[in-house]
């Protein structure tokens, strides 16, 4: 067993500054086994951020990459339901938390720790940071090409903890919908990344037009263009536009990843466009 794996697996009890240094050492050793760490963010709820995170992780896994999906939405974990894993519970093996697997995809969420899926998690910031630290260092992620981190809306404790704990995070994918009212909040997420020196890998405009389930024609339901405007304003890449497809909603509710079960649709092809720059990271 390598020294890095030992550091990642062993718990440390100490006091004062030496404890902090040991925690940093363990974190670095664990994160060194993961090539790329990407956080999916949005300044606003209801924009389909978790849908994007889940389908991004599944698409990368389908492309043959070793992928982990970490849900750090402590108060509203939706990843288990989107992958039909709501009844799963965590287990321990060799003093490590074993992630729940769906195929080759490794998944971890606070939802796996709740006695009932309707239980409320009533925690303040320090407790949330503590469990996120556990997810990063005490889960047996193994060697991964990508760790996709689904963050809750806003710029609060959870995304802050992730970006502070992971020293070499590759960056953030920012999700918006086409309306200006959504973009106004999303701009705060971009500012958050700029202030923390977290690279923004690009912007995804979700729900960009409605796909008719009968004829496949795309109709602009919302005012369009917020994703493009944000990209232009901040000099960022527009990763792509994902239409509002009823089958995406159905797939999420039924726990069937859209990009896997509906891979031949135009909407699924738009996800392929989105992940192309992310896949390119593996060549860097």
Structure in words:
This protein has helices at residues 3-9, 16-31, 49-62, 79-82, 125-137, 157-165, 180-195, 226-234, 246-254, 258-261, 266-280, and strands spanning 34-41, 67-71, 91-93, 96-98, 100-102, 105-109, 144-150, 171-176, 200-211, 218-219, 238-244. The protein contains eleven helices and eleven strands. Mean pLDDT is 88; it is low at 1-7 and 9-13. It is globular and about 60 Å long. The protein has two domains: 1-32, no CATH class; 33-283, 3-Layer(aba) Sandwich (Rossmann fold).
Question: What is the CATH superfamily of the largest domain?
Answer: P-loop containing nucleotide triphosphate hydrolases
Q: From the helix content, strand content and strand pairing, which structural class follows?
A: alpha/beta
Structure annotation, total helices: 11
Secondary structure tally: strands: 11
**Rg (C-alpha, Å):** 19 Å
What would the average pLDDT be, to the nearest integer? Answer: 88
For the record, give the distance between the C-alpha atoms at the N and C termini, rounded to a whole number.
27 Å
**Beta-strand content bin:** 15-25%
Largest sheet: 9 strands, mixed
> What are the secondary-structure elements, in order, as H or E?
HHEHEHEEEEHEHEHEEHEHHH
Query: Percentage of helical residues?
Result: 40-55%
Q: What is the CATH first-level class name of the largest domain? A: Alpha Beta
CATH architecture of the largest domain: 3-Layer(aba) Sandwich
| Shape designation | globular
CATH domain topology of the largest domain: Rossmann fold
Task: Provide the domain count.
Answer: 2
